[in-house]
Amino acid sequence: MTLSIDFTNMMAGALPDGLGITETEWRGSRSAFAAAHAAVDAQRANLGFLTLPADEAALDATLAVVARTRGRFDDVLLLGIGGSALGPIALRTALRPLAWNTLDLAARDGHPRLHVLDNVDPATILTILSRLALDRTLVLVVSKSGGTVETMAQYLIVRDALARAVGEDAAREHLVFVTDPEVGALRRIARAEGIPTLDIPQNVGGRFSVLSPVGMLPAALMGIDVKALMAGAADMTARAASDDPAHNPAGAFAVLQWLADTRHGRHVQVLMPYADPLRDIALWFVQLWAESLGKTRKDGTFTGPTPLAALGATDQHSQVQLFMEGPRDKTVTFITVRGREAEGRIPSRHADIPELAYIGGHTLGALLDVERRATAGALAARGRFNANIELDAVDAWHVGALLQMFALATAYAGALYGINAFDQPGVEMGKNFAYAMLGKPGSEAARAAWDALPHPDARHRV
Amino acid sequence: MTLSIDFTNMMAGALPDGLGITETEWRGSRSAFAAAHAAVDAQRANLGFLTLPADEAALDATLAVVARTRGRFDDVLLLGIGGSALGPIALRTALRPLAWNTLDLAARDGHPRLHVLDNVDPATILTILSRLALDRTLVLVVSKSGGTVETMAQYLIVRDALARAVGEDAAREHLVFVTDPEVGALRRIARAEGIPTLDIPQNVGGRFSVLSPVGMLPAALMGIDVKALMAGAADMTARAASDDPAHNPAGAFAVLQWLADTRHGRHVQVLMPYADPLRDIALWFVQLWAESLGKTRKDGTFTGPTPLAALGATDQHSQVQLFMEGPRDKTVTFITVRGREAEGRIPSRHADIPELAYIGGHTLGALLDVERRATAGALAARGRFNANIELDAVDAWHVGALLQMFALATAYAGALYGINAFDQPGVEMGKNFAYAMLGKPGSEAARAAWDALPHPDARHRV
Question: Which of A346, A430, B220, B406 could form a disulfide with B375 if both were Cys (CB 3.0 to 4.6 A apart)?
Fold first, then answer.
């Protein structure tokens, strides 16, 4: 059980034209990383994600909910957005069989389907509600603050539908809230009505919450081995004790991306798994990296590399042309799975047709590996930085390690960039404008600010 | 039936600090666009996508295949990658009910499910094959060149499985090839074995092929109104007769993004529909824009904005923090659907809880619209360029118009950047390295080039 990063193709020596991170830069980053490591360590009390893998009480509380609901529900409907949705979706894609929700009960080993409502498009919500048997549906309402407008709107609609389907009293037995232990609307409702809840620790932000009940409850309901997930994450946390990036994978990832951005102008940072089950982990990473590092400093300067999700080999036929020939402003980090050379033997046929004859006898696993290595080599030959995260398998242990590695790397990167990786002040203005338009009490100042925007009369339109 | 673009928030006047495209730049682009328009016009014979909406013979051939196979198949399995997959996926998401493949036959109006195999991950392919009833499955093999290695590998495996399931002779009746009219491996096999084929015109490249049988065959099999798609695309093509970007939506989109990139450093270009059904059109656009414009010029300079797919309101909780506060290097183009204010009434409940009381009585449609406008206003207030493509509805006509608009815009943008938007030379090196490693005859030069890469002995690894 190992996770390692090969970053040879980030470094001078593998790249032409004097490009690449130099040994001097890499070794010189040692003290910057040690300071970042110490800064993260000093904030431990505020960074609850560091201790989630060891939080047995939280996991026990989660598993108690799973045990209590076993066999009663065919469908789980998760209401949540952003960090409340991306983690559960990524875990379903990575650790459950393909197209989980299309499988029958036996193929799902008796576990429920999982539907994630992560938007407020009316067509989506009304369609899902019209299809679910609500008397056999468990609804998880997931919001750190307990007041997220999209999630509250979903909740009001779903709660109403539940009450009509099973009655007001029984509706409560179809609800679990996952929210702050003390504050917020969901907590108030839970207290008043006796609705079961699981806690998101106060020091765990939404995008760092996948190993809290936010991710672990839906995962465990679907039968994912959450203890193995935690063990993988704990292993990565232990490796992160080192303040030498050469011995701390999360540190190495953070330092390399930061050097590539700030010293080499590589500010678009692609995460490109070569394994279908890992595709949604790239989307989870996009939120983590973008929302944590995209910040305006007090002095008015802007930070924030732009993360980009891709998938190999598929995107070799979509985005790779740009990565190869477009501006030298990107890094590409692959994620690969070792030892798949025997999987998916390709039969021989059409021996008289050259485009097919050479393929027979290989395997799909080997083809995927060859394509990844060829792409990495061609990127390097063109001066494009790339690296490869290697896993022994796509299983709960390795996924836990991978998620915790990115969470740790994000915390380190925040310190390296000199910004707060744990807030998101940039979304407040838009949120307040929306509150003002919806008439939320207390949003008068936002209304005035909205009215003061230019709002040009002469619209440009074609 | 209208599609329009409001680009007020791209322009000086709506943005602070002297930011935004000036009237002088916009008016001054008129001659550059006229030249680009003329250049595209001069290439008409090579740009088959311009005439696809009027190609009744191609559509008739497609509909004949649909008529001949009606009722015989419950599942369609499409083998293809890149442009052969992204269009069909986008059409299914946009124009069929949510989660089409989970619906039963009646809910699908008798039409088949559609599975798109767009990668060579062995786990995915073997899992799909183990679940399909191959005697009721139609397999579409889609490749412009007719020799794409990923698609050929899929084909060899699926053909073998078909032959085992239904016998060698009957297997042919489960196959349709969509490929070049003359050349390539698929064409040779089709000729030799009498397998039905549909043509991708020689002057239509893969990423411009959605309105050819590549997209129209799977769409029509699923019951999508392909004639309305063509009519919408034809309408957009007619509007593109104007060489004034103020009267040509595709021209306006191309000019604005090009000015934003080359004059204002806005080289990350986000497409962010606020409508769930349009989410995969953003992924289709990413391929089109990235692969067409990401090029190295003969003088060694690099071009190519980086397209980014997002989804509103969901990504307000993921990427929008970066768009708001990160570097001022982005444009954001929303896609919205008019007139949804009555959809999804939110019931009132918990009147004593302020976070919920103000939401009841609104609708989800209004919430989505308010959130989009608030985000647009906040982005503009922070100097971030944004625009809004407005549709009257998500239906075949508007989707046809939207797809054709982006295809036209891409052709114009190629001319504005001074590059060939219709090739993809940057992927050849990686492809040839893969051929060399797989032992394809004729790849000896690639093998030598591969061996000549640095391949440092001392790997950097953590």
Answer: A430
Q: Over chain B, what is the mean pLDDT?
A: 97
Res B458 pLDDT > 80:
no
Q: Is the pLDDT of residue A457 over 80?
A: no
Number of inter-chain CB pairs under 8 A, A vs B: 456
Among A291, A295, A330, A398, the active-site one is A291
CB A219 within 8 A of CB A232: no
Residue A447 near chain B (CB below 8 Å):
no
Neighbours of A30 (CB within 10 A): 15
pLDDT of residue B454: 87
Residue with tokens 């620790």: A201
Q: Going by C-beta distance under 8 Å and a sequence separation of 6 or more, which residues neighbour residue B64?
A: none
Question: Which pLDDT tens digit goes with each residue over A6-45?
Answer: 999 999 999 999 999 999 999 999 999 999 999 999 999 9
3-state secondary structure of B306: strand
Q: What's the pLDDT tens digit per position in B332-391? A: 999 999 999 999 999 999 999 998 999 999 999 999 999 999 999 999 999 999 999 999
Whole-prediction pTM value?
0.98
A291 carries an active-site annotation: yes
Which residue in B393, B404, B375 sits closest to B337, CA to CA?
B393
Full DSSP string of B153-195: HHHHHHHHHHHHHH-HHHHGGGEEEEE-SS-SHHHHHHHHHT-
Residues present in chain B in total: 462
Q: Report the distance separating Cα B79 and Cα B87, nearest Å.
A: 13
Cis ω for the linkage preceding A313 (within 30 of 0): yes
Q: Domains of chain A by range and CATH?
A: 3-41+230-417 (3.40.50.10490), 49-224 (3.40.50.10490)
Q: Which two tokens stand for residue A295?
A: 């910040």
Q: What is the DSSP letter of B273?
A: E
Torsion of CA A93, A207, A10, B122, to 10 degrees: 0
> Whose structure tokens read 């061609």?
A378
Does residue B456 carry a pLDDT above 90? no
- What is the average pLDDT across B303-319? 97
Dihedral of the CA atoms A132, A136, A142, A148 (nearest 10)?
A: 50
Distant-in-sequence contacts of A34-39, Cβ < 8 A, 24+ apart: A34/A243, A34/A244, A35/A415, A36/A251, A36/A254, A36/A412, A36/A415, A36/A416, A37/A243, A37/A248, A37/A251, A37/A412, A37/A415, A38/A243, A39/A415
CB atoms within 10 A of CB B108: 18
Gap from A66 CA to chain B (nearest CA, Å): 25
